[in-house]
C-alpha cells in the first residue's frame, strides 16, 4: 500500500462547484441528482474537436508496401464473402471521430450504445464486430415547461450545434426547438453513471439533473449482463409560480447507420406492471442478422402522468410527422391516452423512418422538487457470427429469448435502479474517499472501464454453446461418417473449443465472454493485449477472467490444419499449432476458428506462451482456486515445452528470430530481447510456483534450474549498467530503452513471487525509463514512449517504437508502484490523463486509443489495453491471497537431485514439431 501523499497534482479535473453553482448542487442533492465530488466534467457547449489519426512515414510506407498489397487483396476477398477483415486500414468511416464521447449505456455483452457528453446516442454495436459511429439524431430527451400565463419553454436537451443535426436530411427533426446553448449545462461522468445538469436552461427558474445509470456491478454476474439503462430526472422549481414540466423521450426504430430505411419495422405501445408503460420498437435487421427490440418507458405514479405516441415519421409523408408530434407537445405537454390501445403498427415501408415517443408530465410547485424516471432496453437475444454459429446472450438465461423480454427489462430496471446505485457506491466509495490518491487517478480508473461495455463485448449463455457444439458435431458426422476424431487434435472443420459438449465446463455458471481488441482491430480476446487488460476483469469479474483463461488453455492443446497465408512475408502455414497459445479466439466463428490475426505466424511469437503461464499463475494466486490450477495444468506444461524450440543455442534463454515476433508486431527483434526474455524468466518462475502448489516438485525443480541458467544469460547479454538493452543484436536500435522491458517483473511482483533481478537493478531500470521515455517527452505530459535512444532521442526505428502506448504506460506505472516508486508511477500515468482525458488534451476520453504519437495523433480508438490502469489499483491494493502468501524463494526450496544435475548438463531438450503437433512428447514433463 502507498504511504503519505502520492503525488502533488500538476493538473486536475474541474470541481463540480466550478461549473455548477453551489446553490444548484445543494438543491439537486435530495435525490442523488447532484453530481459526485469526483467526476470527469465538460460543459455541453464545449467544442468537439476532430481527432487526428497517425500517418506512417515515407520510409515506413515503402517498407510495408508488399504487406499493404497483400492486406488489400485479403480485405477484398473477405468482403466478397460478406465478412469484415480483422484489420482494415484502408476503409474509413464517413463520420470522422471527434472528441464527443461519454459514458456508454447498459451492462456487458448484450450489444452496446454509447452516448456523447452532449447527449447524442451513437457508436451502435448491436451486431457483433460492427460499430456504426454516427449518431441517430431522432433519439433525444426534450423538455417542455409552462407557467401561468404565456410563459412557455421548449427545447431538445442537447446543444443545437451538433454536427449530426447539420447533416440530418429529416426536416422533421430540424423543426424541433434546438434552443439549448449548453453554456449553463454540464456533464459529469463517473462510469457506470453520468449526470447532466441543466442549470437554468431552457427555463431560468428550473434546475434539472439527468442521472444516467447502467447495471455494471462488480461480482454481479446477472444484472451486469443486462442491456438496459435508466435516466433519472430531478426537477427543482426555484420560481414563484407552479410549473408544468413534460419530459419527452424520442427513439427511432434503428440500430444506427441507415438501418431504419430497410423497412419491415413495427412499433407497439405497452402497459406493464408497477406503473411502467411505453413503446416497443421491433427492428428487423438487414443481412439476416438477428432482430432487435427496443423498449422506451417511463414510470407513472401519483405525481407523474405517462403517455405515448407509438409511431411518428421524419418525413411529410407520415400520418404523424416529427413536426406534428413536437407541436402537440408544445401545446399539450402530453399525448392522447387512447394511444395505448393502438396495437402494433403496420410494418414500415422501404426508405421510411419510424420513431416513437414517451412523455412523462408532472407539476412542480414553487420551490418544490420532483423526480421523473425513464428507462431504455434493447433485446437482441441471439448472437450470430458470420460463419454460422449462433448463441443466446447471457441475459436470456434470466429473461428468456422472447422479443417482449424488453418489457420485463425496463420494468425491472425502473424498480431496481436504486439497489444498483447502492452497490455501485459501495464499490467506488473506498477508492474515491482515499485522500492519498490523486483525483485524476480516481476519475480515470473508473472511466477507463467504459471499454468493458463499449468494446464490442459479447457474453453468452454456456448452454447455447453446448447446443452449437452438438450441431457442429452432428454436421461433421453427417458429412463424413468415417470422419476421424484423433486423440488430441481435430481436423480443420471441427470446433477447437467445446468439440465434446461434455468438455464445456462452466463451473461458476457465468457463461462465455468475448471482448474485442478494439473497434478497428476485429479479433476477440486478443491474448497479448489481454495480458495487460485482464487486471480489470480479475479485480471486478474474476469468474469471467478464469473462464477466458480456460478457453485459451483448451486452445493450447488443439490444432487446426487449415492453411492460411501470413501477410507480412506472404508465406503459408497452418492456422493453429498445438502447443502454441492462440493469438485470439477468432473473429467470425469464435471458440471454433481461432487466430483471426494473420499478419505474422503467431505460432512463432515468443511472448504469447510466457504470457499465458504468467496470467494463469497470477489468476491462480489471486483467487486461490485449486480446481482452476488443476484444470489448466496440462496446458501450462505444453505451453512451456513448446517454448524450448526457441532456445537455439541451448543456453536456457529463448531467442527472437529477427522479425516482429511479439506484441510489438512492427518492431523487429533479434537474439535475446529484454521484453520476451524477461517474460520467459518470469514464466519459468511462475510455472515452478504453480507446480509446487499442485504437488509437482520435480517439475518445479527443473523450471528453477532453467531459470537460474537463463537469468545469467539474460543479464550477461543485455544489462548495460543502467537498463536492459532492447535486444542482443548489433544494430543502433539494439541499445534502445524500451518502456516495457520489465513486463515479466511486473507480473512477478503482481503475483507475489520473488523478484527476477536485484532490487537495485529493477529500480535503476525503472528510473532510467522514467527519466528518458517519460520525462523527455513534453515534460512527462504524454505517457511513456515505447523506445528511446540513450542519447535522449525517440527511437524512430518503426511506427511502434516511436509511439506512446496508453496501456503499456499504465502497466509501467503499476510496476513502479510495486517497487515503491510512487511519485514516478503517478507522474507517468498522469501523462495519459493529461493527453487523453484533460481539458487541454487531445480529446480521447471514453475512446482511449491503443497509441498516440508525440504530437498526439492516435492509432486505433476504443482499445482494450488501457484497462491496464487496473493493474495500478491491484498494485495499490493486492488481493488478500497474495498479501498473505508466504514469501519463500522458489530457488531456496529446490533440492538438486543427481538426475536433475544430469538434466542440467544435457541442457534443455529441443522440440521439433512434426506434422504440426508434438506427437507423443507433449506430456514428458510428468504433468
TrEMBL record:
It catalyses: a beta-D-glucosyl-(1<->1')-N-acylsphing-4-enine + H2O = an N-acylsphing-4-enine + D-glucose. Residues 511-872 form the Glycosyl-hydrolase family 116 catalytic region domain. Keywords: Glycosidase, Hydrolase, Lipid metabolism, Membrane. Residues 85-107 are annotated as: Disordered. One of its GO terms (biological process) is lipid metabolic process. It is an enzyme of class 3 (hydrolase). It comes from the Eukaryota. GO terms for molecular function: glucosylceramidase activity. Non-lysosomal glucosylceramidase that catalyzes the hydrolysis of glucosylceramide (GlcCer) to free glucose and ceramide. This is Non-lysosomal glucosylceramidase. It comes from Urochloa decumbens. The lineage of its organism: Eukaryota, Viridiplantae, Streptophyta, Embryophyta, Tracheophyta.
Amino acid at each position: 500500500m502507498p504511504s503519505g501523499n502520492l503525488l502533488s497534482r500538476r493538473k486536475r479535473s474541474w470541481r463540480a462547484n466550478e461549473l455548477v453553482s453551489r446553490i444548484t448542487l445543494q438543491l439537486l442533492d435530495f435525490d442523488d441528482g447532484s453530481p459526485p465530488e469526483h467526476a470527469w466534467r465538460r460543459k455541453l457547449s464545449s467544442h468537439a474537436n476532430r481527432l487526428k489519426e497517425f500517418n506512417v512515414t515515407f520510409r515506413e510506407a515503402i517498407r510495408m508496401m508488399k504487406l499493404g498489397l497483400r492486406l488489400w487483396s485479403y480485405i477484398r476477398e473477405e468482403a466478397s464473402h460478406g465478412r469484415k477483415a480483422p484489420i482494415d486500414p484502408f476503409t474509413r468511416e464517413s463520420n470522422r471521430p471527434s472528441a464527443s464521447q461519454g459514458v456508454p449505456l447498459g451492462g456487458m455483452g448484450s450489444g452496446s450504445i454509447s452516448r456523447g457528453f452532449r447527449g447524442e446516442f451513437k457508436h451502435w454495436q448491436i451486431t457483433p464486430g460492427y460499430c456504426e459511429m454516427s449518431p441517430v439524431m431522432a433519439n433525444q430527451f426534450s423538455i417542455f415547461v409552462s407557467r401561468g400565463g404565456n410563459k412557455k419553454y421548449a427545447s431538445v436537451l442537447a446543444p443545437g450545434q451538433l454536427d449530426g443535426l447539420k447533416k440530418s436530411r429529416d426536416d422533421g427533426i430540424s423543426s424541433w426547438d434546438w434552443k439549448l446553448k449548453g453554456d449553463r449545462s454540464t456533464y459529469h461522468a463517473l462510469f457506470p453513471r453520468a449526470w447532466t445538469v441543466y442549470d437554468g436552461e431552457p427555463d431560468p427558474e428550473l434546475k434539472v439533473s439527468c442521472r444516467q445509470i447502467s447495471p455494471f456491478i462488480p461480482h454481479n454476474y446477472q444484472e451486469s449482463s443486462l442491456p438496459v439503462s435508466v435516466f433519472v430526472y430531478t426537477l427543482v422549481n426555484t420560481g414563484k409560480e407552479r410549473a408544468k414540466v413534460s419530459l419527452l423521450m424520442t427513439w427511432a426504430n434503428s440500430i444506427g447507420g441507415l438501418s431504419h430505411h430497410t423497412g419491415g419495422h413495427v412499433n407497439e405501445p405497452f402497459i406493464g406492471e408497477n406503473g411502467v408503460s411505453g413503446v416497443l420498437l421491433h427492428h428487423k435487421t438487414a443481412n439476416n442478422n438477428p432482430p432487435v427490440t427496443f423498449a422506451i418507458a417511463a414510470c407513472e405514479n401519483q405525481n407523474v402522468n405517462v403517455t405515448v405516441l407509438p409511431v411518428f415519421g421524419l418525413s411529410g409523408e407520415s400520418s404523424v410527422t416529427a413536426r406534428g408530434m413536437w407541436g402537440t407537445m408544445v401545446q399539450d405537454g402530453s399525448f392522447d391516452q387512447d394511444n395505448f390501445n393502438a396495437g402494433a403498427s403496420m410494418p414500415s415501408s422501404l426508405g421510411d423512418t419510424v420513431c416513437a415517443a414517451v412523455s412523462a408530465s408532472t407539476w412542480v410547485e414553487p420551490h418544490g422538487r420532483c423526480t421523473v424516471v425513464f428507462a431504455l432496453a434493447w433485446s437482441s437475444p441471439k448472437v450470430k457470427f458470420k460463419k454460422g454459429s449462433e448463441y443466446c446472450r447471457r441475459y436470456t438465461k434470466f429473461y428468456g429469448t422472447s422479443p417482449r423480454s424488453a418489457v420485463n427489462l425496463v420494468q425491472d430496471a425502473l424498480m431496481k435502479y436504486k439497489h444498483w446505485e447502492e452497490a455501485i457506491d459501495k464499490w467506488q466509495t473506498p477508492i474515491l474517499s482515499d485522500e492519498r490518491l490523486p483525483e485524476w487517478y480516481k476519475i480515470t480508473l473508473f472511466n477507463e472501464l467504459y471499454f468493458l461495455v463499449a468494446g464490442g463485448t459479447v457474453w453468452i449463455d454456456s448452454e447455447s454453446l453446448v447446443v452449437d457444439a452438438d450441431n457442429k458435431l452432428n454436421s461433421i458426422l453427417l458429412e463424413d461418417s468415417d470422419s476421424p476424431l484423433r486423440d488430441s487434435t481435430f481436423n480443420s472443420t471441427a470446433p477447437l473449443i467445446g468439440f465434446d459438449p461434455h468438455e464445456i465446463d462452466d463451473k461458476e455458471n457465468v457463461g462465455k465472454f468475448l471482448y474485442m481488441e478494439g473497434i478497428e482491430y476485429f479479433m476477440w480476446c486478443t491474448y497479448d493485449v489481454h495480458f495487460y487488460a485482464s487486471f480489470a476483469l480479475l479485480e471486478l469479474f474474476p469468474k469471467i477472467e478464469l473462464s477466458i483463461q480456460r478457453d485459451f488453455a483448451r486452445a493450447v492443446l488443439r490444432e487446426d490444419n487449415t492453411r492460411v497465408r501470413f501477410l507480412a512475408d506472404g508465406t503459408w502455414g497452418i492456422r493453429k499449432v498445438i502447443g502454441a497459445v492462440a493469438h485470439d479466439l477468432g473473429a467470425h466463428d469464435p471458440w471454433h476458428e481461432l487466430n483471426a490475426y494473420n499478419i505474422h505466424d503467431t505460432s512463432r511469437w515468443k511472448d504469447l506462451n510466457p504470457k499465458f503461464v504468467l496470467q494463469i499463475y497470477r489468476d491462480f494466486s489471486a483467487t486461490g482456486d485449486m480446481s482452476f490450477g488443476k484444470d489448466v495444468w496440462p496446458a501450462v506444461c505444453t505451453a512451456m515445452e513448446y517454448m524450448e524450440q526457441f532456445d537455439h543455442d541451448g543456453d536456457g534463454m529463448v531467442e527472437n528470430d529477427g522479425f516482429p515476433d511479439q506484441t510489438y508486431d512492427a518492431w523487429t527483434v533479434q537474439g535475446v530481447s529484454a521484453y520476451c526474455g524477461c517474460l520467459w524468466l518470469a514464466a519459468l518462475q511462475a510455472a515452478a510456483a504453480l507446480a509446487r502448489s499442485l504437488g509437482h516438485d520435480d517439475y518445479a525443480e527443473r523450471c528453477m534450474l532453467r531459470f537460474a541458467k537463463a537469468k545469467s544469460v539474460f543479464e550477461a547479454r543485455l544489462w548495460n549498467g543502467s537498463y536492459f538493452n532492447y535486444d542482443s543484436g548489433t544494430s543502433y536500435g539494439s541499445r534502445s530503452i524500451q518502456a516495457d522491458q520489465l513486463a515479466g517483473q511486473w507480473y512477478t511482483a503482481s503475483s507475489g513471487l520473488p523478484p527476477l533481478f536485484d532490487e537495485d537493478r529493477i529500480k535503476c531500470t525503472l528510473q532510467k525509463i522514467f527519466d528518458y521515455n517519460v520525462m523527455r517527452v513534453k515534460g512527462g505530459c504524454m505517457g511513456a514512449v515505447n523506445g528511446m535512444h540513450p542519447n535522449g532521442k525517440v527511437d524512430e526505428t518503426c511506427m511502434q517504437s516511436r509511439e506512446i502506448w496508453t496501456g503499456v504506460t499504465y502497466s509501467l506505472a503499476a510496476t513502479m508502484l510495486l517497487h515503491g516508486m510512487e511519485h514516478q508511477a503517478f507522474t507517468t500515468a498522469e501523462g495519459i490523463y493529461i493527453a487523453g482525458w484533460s481539458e487541454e488534451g487531445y480529446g480521447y476520453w471514453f475512446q482511449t486509443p491503443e497509441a498516440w504519437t508525440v504530437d498526439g495523433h492516435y492509432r486505433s480508438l476504443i482499445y482494450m489495453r488501457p484497462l491496464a490502469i487496473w493493474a495500478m489499483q491491484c498494485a495499490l491494493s493486492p488481493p488478500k491471497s497474495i498479501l498473505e502468501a508466504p514469501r519463500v524463494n522458489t530457488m531456496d526450496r529446490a533440492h538438486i537431485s543427481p538426475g536433475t544435475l544430469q538434466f542440467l548438463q544435457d541442457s534443455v531438450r529441443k522440440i521439433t514439431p512434426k506434422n504440426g503437433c508434438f506427437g507423443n512428447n507433449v506430456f514428458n514433463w510428468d504433468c
